Records
---
Amino acid sequence: MILADAGCEVTLWARRPEVAEAINTTRTNPDYLPGFVLPEGVRATTDPAEAADGAEFTVLTVPSQTLRENLARWAPVLPSDTVLVSMMKGIELGTAKRMSEVIGEVAKAPAERVAVITGPNLAKEIADRMPAAAVVACRDEAVARRLQTACHTPYFRPYTNTDVVGCELGGAVKNVIGLAVGIADGMGLGDNTKASLMTRGLAETTRLGLSMGADPQTFSGLAGMGDLIATCSSPLSRNHTFGTNLGRGMTLQETIAVTRQTAEGVKSCESVLDLARRHGVEMPLTETVVDIVHNGKPPLVALKELMSRSAKAERH
Ligand SMILES: NC(=O)C1=CN([C@@H]2O[C@H](COP(=O)(O)OP(=O)(O)OC[C@H]3O[C@@H](n4cnc5c(N)ncnc54)[C@H](O)[C@@H]3O)[C@@H](O)[C@H]2O)C=CC1
Ligand SMILES: O=C(CO)COP(=O)(O)O
């Protein structure tokens, strides 16, 4: 929608023929976005070759853990000069790779042809054309500027950044912190708790980023603090909502059963922790989320343990 509103011709690839058909005939996706009419410049197909044909930008937004498998199928039909754009906020399980790394590897694309769009961009608010800012990151600033122009609309204001690592980490880790804040909300805890989790969550994200060569300033920008605020404040966030259900006492299986859309942090909390261990970085909040979500630790026990960690200086 944003790309079409900015004047691009857009072809969506859809898995199900009925979804492509609905988009082409009624300009709606009744399953995922009922009530929203897509702009004229958007059409859909189930044929990846047709979707990719002549594409200046190829925007990838499948659930992170399915990217490798999907992209392996699409890679042969991608134009050799297309810029591959990730909007995914996850880290691959098993390899602990960022999505841009998976893209580079599977599509054999150099870093100059891989970009990221991230920031406080809750889907429903974007579909409502409510004003939002975002970050368009690419190692090659000229490519970031081209993508910035391609997605700049009166309601969507993208800023460029060359710190791809920091932008991706900001997006992936905020989902984990969003789960933590949701759990706290579900437990009936207050705004002090929420603010403390968000701030210390950003501190551990920055710590990880620094160890991976990211620019620390990225984390106080839209890809870091901005996205963290949106996810941790909004009932529209799937990660936040997932956490709230857990905090209210639902089991993991019950929570999964009532969650239809992708909550990336549920899987990525494990790969973020894996990444942290590979870099020798302590991430106590991420570890706590993994314990609650995957190791069955009761939230109240996890909270007590978190609060009784040894006292530290704030910078550590
Ligand atoms: N929804 C949001 O507000 C935002 C989401 N993102 C990121 O976008 C990425 C995708 O999430 P959403 O589109 O929001 O999730 P979603 O759950 O709304 O949609 C996922 C789409 O992927 C399809 N899908 C599921 N499994 C698949 C598979 N194995 N192969 C191919 N397609 C598959 C689904 O049919 C659906 O169309 C995530 O990494 C998320 O973090 C980023 C910014 C905002
Ligand atoms: O990333 C998002 C907003 O920028 C959306 O967050 P959720 O995936 O938790 O809904």
Note: The longest strand covers residues 132-138.
---
Amino acid sequence: MKKIIITIDGFSSCGKSTLARQLAQKLNYVFIDSGAMYRAVTLYFLRNHINWEKKKDVEKALSEINLSFQYNDQTGRSDIYLNDENVELLVRDMLVSENVSAVSTIREVREFAVAQQQQMGKKKGIVMDGRDIGTTVFPKAELKIFVTADPAVRVERRFKELFEKNPQITIEEVKNNLEMRDYIDSNREVSPLRQAADAIVLDNSNLTRDEQLHKALHWAKEKLQQVQHV
Ligand SMILES: Nc1ncnc2c1ncn2[C@@H]1O[C@H](COP(=O)(O)OP(=O)(O)OP(=O)(O)O)[C@@H](O)[C@H]1O
Ligand SMILES: Nc1ccn([C@@H]2O[C@H](COP(=O)(O)O)[C@@H](O)[C@H]2O)c(=O)n1
């Protein structure tokens, strides 16, 4: 059976990774959270005090970074590794969230990440979520989904998730971070967050996780049927 590439883009915290992970599981496809790659690069820059305003420092730092995803038996999910260290939890830290969008504006960082993402999709059978997956990484993807949700709903969902790990966190902190990232991501020069012209929009403000999966799975099955006849 022929396989396809599915891209899921959208604003911060609208449920892209949740949907992409579940969809990949149902289809027995690879799931890649491209945001985790930008987060891991940011973690490396912060830890090593890299001055990311300086192109040479960025290039040297990138040459020292190896990113990979490895399956975690305990969680049943793929974790991001930075130079053989599992940093899946560390990259979700607020300090990383505060800096990741600035780091993601850097052309060299994007070229570094995009080249690896395209390599991962060579054999198709992949669901990748992010900001520029349907526009830049896989512009010819068979199925592109652009997820949206009401900003207040997005803040509430992310707050609920982070509060469980850190009861000190405030809703203002979460709201400011989402707004800042959405602004930088949408306004950067290289590969800004955009809805691809051929993407299907999925507003999940009032949908459960199961309902959004059901819709996406329906679109994926339709696409799969079409490509078998080509
Ligand atoms: N339909 C839904 N209803 C309620 N909560 C949801 C729904 N979809 C996802 N969530 C929850 O919302 C939060 C954000 O989801 P997720 O991490 O998948 O978003 P994202 O778009 O990948 O975010 P980011 O780009 O910021 O990493 C998570 O806590 C997730 O469990
Ligand atoms: N394709 C992508 C994916 C992510 N980014 C940047 O990384 C940040 C974190 O991503 P999450 O999906 O984990 O929220 C995001 O805010 C972007 O700045 C990107 O540029 N391109």
Note: The chain has one domain: 5-222.
